[in-house]
Amino acid sequence: MTIYALQVLHCSILLCSYRNKVSVVCSFFTLQ
Predict the structure, then answer these.
(1) 5-23, pLDDT tens digit by residue?
(2) Most buried of the four, 2, 25, 26, 28, by CB within 10 Å?
(3) Other CB atoms closer than 10 Å to residue 12's CB: what's the count?
(4) What Rg do the C-alpha atoms of the chain give, in angstroms?
């Protein structure tokens, strides 16, 4: 769960930085 949380954190930073289609996919996985 800790590793998953870190992945979500990293993903949030990435989607904040890029805001591309990748961010949308990332956000979708984060919400799940």
Answers:
(1) 888 888 777 766 666 666 6
(2) 26
(3) 14
(4) 9
